[in-house]
Design a protein that fits this description.
The complex is a heterodimer of chains A (about 200) and B (about 120).
Chain A lengths: L2 H4 L4 H6 L7 H25 L3 H4 L3 H11 L15 H5 L4 H20 L5 H21 L21 H12 L30
Chain B lengths: L1 H22 L3 H10 L17 H8 L5 H10 L3 E3 L5 E3 L11 H13 L4
Antiparallel strand pairs in B: 1-2
Helix pairs in contact in B: 2-5, 4-5
The chains are: A mainly alpha (about 200), B mainly alpha (about 120).
Chain lengths: ~200, ~120
């Protein structure tokens, strides 16, 4: 070390200097526990953005999609199991969750610029937004649906015959949930026609 | 010329007169509700699938006074229905937002009954 370098002052120099006061073990232990607290705090913060209260904090969600979702089976049902916003719209595993959360920052920009701040604007964008979400779900093989639903777990005795037949056909064809089940928790975009129902002339 | 204008006026009035009852029917809303409830998975507009075509239902009830009520009952009671392959299954219960909205269900029933042969 030259005399010129050792003479440097400031935060960076202090950080780079080996500790003469604390033991290596002490530093490691403090660092280890600080790490746990930081990591826990980070994840707790991220989980907070997964709650229904957070999602419906924006009137764009509260007045449109949340209002519709309240009438659907994923909100209220016989057995009392509820799938909240994040159960369907945010992947469970950490890596995919972080990727989705980073993508969601664009929605903050949308909120600031007021791109869907009225019912009319929301309806005008509904198809584009829905198609984006359906494409995302299709690309992940409907991973969020599959946290609860599984072709293998469908009982031919308990499921109605027609849906069972269609599910087994879909399974054989390698289809994924969202390819048929659009608009199950929200209104379908106006004029949207589900694939598989062949167009007939009026 | 005057006669022609008169005839056109009569035609216009009678056309409006005929169109008036149909105005109550919101076709777009009916189609939206049918799509939302996956009706078209089993029913064609004019083509029988696992279930009868809307046209078949319309033909069955044409001229009957209680047609709308019957069709609404069919959509909402979950009664056993016969499929094309002869087996039976409970019919899906049509859902509306808000739930059990008689106006929306009636509108869909009226739409089904309005289907005419091509």
């Amino acid at each position: 070390m030259t005399t010129q370098e050792s003479g440097k002052q400031g935060l960076w120099a202090t950080l780079r200097k080996p500790s003469a006061k604390y033991s290596l073990l002490g530093l490691l232990v403090v660092g280890f526990f600080s790490g746990i607290i930081f990591w826990g705090g980070f994840n707790t913060g991220m989980e907070a953005t997964n709650t229904m209260a957070f999602c419906t904090g924006c009137h764009e969600m509260k007045d449109n999609v949340y209002e519709e979702y309240k009438y659907t089976i994923h909100y209220s049902n016989r057995t009392g199991v509820r799938a909240t916003c994040s159960d369907c719209h945010v992947p469970k595993d950490w890596t995919h969750k972080i990727i989705r959360k980073i993508q969601a920052t664009k929605e903050v920009y949308g909120k600031i610029t007021g791109v869907i701040d009225t019912k009319e604007k929301f309806e005008a964008h509904r198809l584009a937004m829905a198609e984006r979400e359906w494409a995302r779900m299709k690309a992940t093989n409907s991973i969020e649906c599959r946290n609860c639903h599984d072709f293998e777990a469908m009982s031919p005795e308990l499921q109605k015959k027609t849906p069972y037949k269609k599910h087994m056909e879909a399974k054989a064809a390698g289809q994924t949930c969202i390819e048929c089940h659009q608009g199950i928790a929200h209104r379908l975009p106006k004029g949207f026609k589900k694939p598989g129902t062949e167009e007939e002339e009026e | 010329m005057k006669q022609l204008t008169f005839a056109a006026a009569v035609a216009a009035i009678s056309l409006t007169g005929f169109a008036a009852p149909a105005l109550a029917l919101d076709v777009e809303a009916a189609k939206g509700l049918a799509e939302q409830n996956n009706c078209m998975q089993c029913h064609g507009l004019r083509k029988d699938k696992d279930g009868p075509a809307f046209l078949t239902t319309a033909d069955k009830y044409r001229g009957k006074a209680n047609a709308v009520d019957e069709v609404v009952k069919h959509m909402t009671s979950g009664k056993k229905v016969k499929l094309a392959d002869g087996t039976q299954e409970e019919h899906k219960i049509a859902k509306t937002m808000p739930p059990n909205d008689a106006k929306q269900l009636k509108n869909l029933a009226e739409y089904i009954l309005s289907i005419q042969p091509k």
